[in-house]
Design brief:
The protein has 569 residues and is mainly β. It folds into two domains: 408 residues, Galactose oxidase/kelch, beta-propeller (Methylamine Dehydrogenase, Chain H); 113 residues, Sandwich (Immunoglobulin-like). 6% of the residues lie in helices and 34% in strands. It contains five helices and 43 strands. Strands 19, 33, 35, 38, 41, 42 and 43 form a seven-stranded mixed beta sheet that branches. Strand 6 and strand 7 form a beta hairpin. It is globular. The chain starts with 5 loop residues before the first helix and ends with a strand. Bound molecules: 2-acetamido-2-deoxy-beta-D-glucopyranose (4 copies). The site of one 2-acetamido-2-deoxy-beta-D-glucopyranose has 3 residues, from loops. One 2-acetamido-2-deoxy-beta-D-glucopyranose (NAG) binds next to loops. This is Sulfate transporter 3.
């Protein structure tokens, strides 16, 4: 199916001139900054013995040191009780009152392991979410009475969930939330609802009329779904790239028309329950960015055969087919000329995460080597994280973990460039004894760039209050300490990263933008300080408004700690 609109024609016209522009940009502008060689394979540490709640969903809250972890109220139990004296002797909930003793969402300080339980009333099971312009989490959907609920959690120390049931026009269970260039949210799909809708502003409700039927989700529905939690990315031209099962389209959210359909990605299904994982590669800007179309590439990896869930969950004895070993990479800005480049990972993987590291490379982590999604449906934990290098388009295995992270596991990039790894197999209510018990241990992984030999390249951002709000197109300066005698511009990157909402192998709204650097100079007054001149992203379609972590990367090594910035008009 191919639908052509006037917008589609226009973009294709513009695409013709892009290759010419490409020829004249240097390597650095393609995101290939020089980086130091290392054979260091990373290091794992057990960070916390018990997060209390198994992190089925995980997101960092800006400016605090808080990671938010939550599962589902349907489980009734967890490994953390509220302080109520009545609750202290309750082991297994037997009544509605006792169910209220167990937390289903926590804020965990990712520096100290301190955990704070937060009450949730409407079920968040397999829900969706994103940070809004103010850095609050806006969570959508879930199960049962949570499926049409919108919840908001602000980032203050004593904030609690605000819950708005009956807000969405359709139930959203296994749906995907995406942020548009103007900061509004849309939610796509979910079980039994091949539709989408805008998330209304706080306190407003959608009627059924505000729900838009989406034939693409209807068409990509297999007998066992395989189109839930679709991968959705805002393209730099304001259209939405939507991938479900093995197909993908560009949707114009203003006209609700499909602008382009990309070729099918062969070799199995990639969406839930054949859960693959995906990310958008860093969007690389030039200093004084003027291109009419800014390239954007999407990586879709792993997954399983179309019938994997049937074999693992509905067949007796169960069969656990091998997971998919390949990835597809596509430049969505090429439109008609876009094709999938097929890459082979070192090992098959399902239920993993694709996290964009502060350097712009991708970490493939967590998951299994066979089976499907569902809490007893996967086997052969894939303990080996894989580094995908964007510059060389190649994979490298890093040091393995010892803790299986199967269905319902999550991960997040921290401001110190380490990776937080949590969750796995909530099962139907926290099993201590099972083939894969419910996991509440939390680990941290220090990737390859923590090679002690590279420590001298770790810079430190000198905080400048004025630089914390970055307006679109605004030139600004960053002061940086260390890294080298004289910072070499060819080895320097400044990357801003939007903390994603991670669940089920999907990291919603994960986005990295590599800012254009125009100049690097020694500071006049402090000789160990360098001043980087750069420019904010051009508009909201490139970088939706909100909070980002800003990482300075020198010689392939991220700075000691990212700075939180607010990107806005
Ligand atoms: C977060 O942790 C870092 C490192 O321990 C610390 O320097 C900083 O003050 C903490 N920030 C907040 C808001 O607690
Ligand atoms: C939502 O539904 C669950 C049962 O699935 C019930 O325990 C809970 O009390 C309901 N929440 C509210 C606020 O009605
Ligand atoms: C894409 O998925 C559909 C099932 O939804 C399947 O029938 C079709 O063969 C797949 N296409 C390819 C090229 O794998
Ligand atoms: C199938 O999956 C569902 C949901 O994940 C689970 O409740 C059920 O126990 C599974 N059935 C079998 C036979 O594995």
């Amino acid at each position: 199916m191919r639908i052509t609109t006037a917008t589609g024609m226009l973009w294709r016209g513009l695409c013709m001139i892009v290759p010419l522009l490409f020829a004249s940009v240097n390597l650095r502008n393609k995101g290939i900054a020089a980086s130091a060689e290392t054979n260091y394979k990373g290091k794992w540490e057990l960070f916390s013995q018990n997060s209390g709640v198994s992190a089925m969903h995980l997101i960092l809250l800006p400016k605090t040191n808080n990671s938010l972890m939550f599962d589902a109220t349907i489980f009734k139990t967890s490994r953390l009780k509220f302080q109520d004296p009545h609750c202290q002797n309750v082991v297994v909930p037997k009544s509605l009152v006792e169910e209220h003793c167990f937390a289903h969402s926590v804020l965990m300080d990712f520096e100290t392991t301190k955990v704070k339980p937060l009450r949730l009333k409407y079920d968040t099971w397999c829900s969706s979410g994103a940070l809004d312009v103010k850095g609050r989490l806006v969570s959508t959907g879930g199960f049962n009475n949570g499926s049409d609920t919108v919840r908001i959690l602000d980032k203050c120390d004593d904030c609690t969930w605000k819950e708005y049931p009956g807000t969405l026009g359709n139930g959203r269970w296994y749906a995907t939330q995406v942020t548009l260039g103007d900061g509004r949210f849309m939610v796509f799909g979910g079980r039994d609802f091949p539709t989408y809708e805008f998330v209304p502003t706080e306190g407003k409700r959608n009627t059924k009329n505000q729900v838009i039927d989406f034939k693409f989700l209807r068409e990509t529905h297999d007998p066992v779904e395989n189109n839930l939690y679709p991968f959705v990315y805002l393209h730099t031209d304001g259209n939405l790239f939507i991938f479900a099962n093995n197909r993908s389209v560009l949707l114009n959210p203003k006209t609700n028309s499909i602008v382009h359909e990309f070729p099918v990605l062969p070799n199995g299904a990639r969406s839930y329950p054949s859960s693959g994982f995906s990310c958008m590669l860093p969007i690389t800007l030039q200093p004084d960015e003027k291109r009419s179309v800014i390239p954007a590439e999407v990586l879709v990896c792993g997954g399983a055969a179309h019938n994997a869930f049937t074999l693992a969950n509905l067949t007796r004895p169960p069969v656990f087919p091998p997971a998919t070993k390949d990835c597809g990479l596509i430049d969505i800005s090429q439109m008609q000329k876009a094709t999938w480049k097929i890459l082979q990972m070192p090992s098959p993987r399902i239920l993993g995460d694709a996290l964009v590291l502060p350097t712009g490379d991708v970490l493939l982590v967590n998951g299994a080597k066979s089976g499907s999604a569902g809490w007893e449906n996967a086997r052969d934990p894939n303990l080996v994280p894989v580094l995908y290098s964007v510059a060389s388009s190649s994979f490298k295995e890093l040091n393995p973990s010892t803790i299986p992270r199967m269905y319902h596991s999550t991960s997040a990039v921290l401001p110190d460039a380490r990776i937080l790894i949590a969750g796995s197999n909530t099962n139907d209510g926290y099993l201590d004894v099972a083939l894969f018990p419910t996991e509440t241990r939390v680990e941290k992984f220090s990737p390859h760039y923590f090679d002690p030999a590279l420590d001298r390249f770790r810079t430190e951002i000198v905080y400048d209050k004025k630089a914390k709000r970055i307006n679109y197109g605004m030139p600004f300066k960053l002061q940086v300490k260390g890294g080298d005698e004289n910072l070499d511009m060819q080895k320097l990157q400044v990357n801003i990263y939007n903390p994603p909402f991670t669940t089920h192998g999907i990291s919603m709204n994960q986005r990295m933008i590599r800012l254009g650097i125009s100049d690097v100079k020694k500071d006049k007054d402090a000789k160990d300080v360098s001043v980087i001149s750069l420019q904010g992203a051009p508009n909201g379609n490139v970088a939706p408004p909100g909070y980002y972590m800003l990482f300075v990367v020198y010689n392939g090594v991220p700075c000691r700690r990212a700075m939180w910035i607010n990107v806005n008009k």
